[in-house]
Specification:
The chain is built from eight helices and nine strands. The protein is α/β, with parallel strands linked by helices and 208 residues long. It has two domains: 143 residues, P-loop containing nucleotide triphosphate hydrolases (Rossmann fold), CATH 3.40.50; 60 residues, Guanylate Kinase phosphate binding domain (2-Layer Sandwich). The longest helix has 16 residues. The chain binds adenosine-5'-diphosphate and guanosine-5'-monophosphate. Adenosine-5'-diphosphate binds next to α1, α5 and α7.
């Protein structure tokens, strides 16, 4: 059945920091241009190379809190000492326009999104081992030993939440993990909910 008969799907990816989420999400969005990123708001400072409005909307804490109080966010959370939130309206508008949406958010936020965006599907990306997770975080070169320890502590708490997710993907071999992610994407695109009114329209052909 062709892609044009389908509504936008929402795919939420969670993973302990350093597992490989950014790597996989970038490749998926590149291969499937129907995907749009949900651009989050954050109070953390931009990293070198990050662009305001593309990677995040970088806000002061005051502005973030004001928006939060106005109900601007579908979910929000404090991660590693900074606030992050998903703008609700932008997500709804993109889905209504038929775009698929990728959410790169933390586990606390994902649990809230389960209520505010009930059609979303949730993937938990797992590292193959603690040693490998440490190696990836160190290899990325963006962490001090203190922030590394904080991320590993947080990872333990996040892993304890993995059971309610719809899918688990172990990112050991990158290529295999990517193919599994594509399989999940294809599967959720085939669910009747993503086909919206197709059968209704088809049946109308019998009576016209
Ligand atoms: P996250 O977004 O989850 O914090 P990244 O995508 O930044 O993680 O990946 C962390 C580091 O691990 C990067 O240097 C990336 O190239 C590397 N990496 C990702 N997946 C794999 C894999 N399957 N095997 C080895 N290294 C990987
Ligand atoms: P980073 O600062 O490394 O870009 O992201 C740190 C963590 O914040 C990641 O786990 C990322 O998924 C999460 N994050 C990014 N945007 C959001 C968001 O809008 N909401 C929530 N809850 N978490 C987010």
């Amino acid at each position: 059945m062709t892609e044009r008969f389908r509504a936008g799907v929402a795919l939420v990816l969670c993973a302990p920091s350093g597992t490989g989420k950014t790597t996989l999400v970038r490749r998926l969005a590149h291969e499937f241009p129907r995907f749009a990123f949900s651009i989050s708001c954050t109070t953390r400072s931009p990293r070198p190379g990050e662009v305001d409005g593309r990677d995040y909307l970088f806000l002061s804490r005051e502005k973030f809190v004001a928006l939060r109080e106005q109900g601007h966010f579908a979910e929000w959370a404090e991660v590693h000492g900074n606030l992050y939130g998903t703008p609700l309206l932008a997500a709804r508008e993109l889905l209504a326009a038929g775009r698929d949406l990728l959410f790169d958010i933390d586990v606390q936020g994902a649990a809230q999104l389960k209520n505010t965006l009930p059609q979303a599907k949730f993937v938990f990306l797992l590292p193959p081992s603690l040693a490998e997770l440490k190696a990836r975080l160190r290899g990325r070169g963006s962490e001090t030993e203190e922030s590394l320890a904080r991320r590993l502590e947080n990872a333990k708490k996040e892993l304890a939440q993995a059971s309610w997710f719809d899918f688990w993907i172990i990112n050991d071999d990158l290529e295999l993990a990517y193919q599994e992610l594509v399989a999940v994407y294809r599967a959720i695109s085939l669910a009747p909910g993503a086909r919206s009114d197709f059968v209704t329209l088809l049946l109308q052909e019998w009576s016209s």
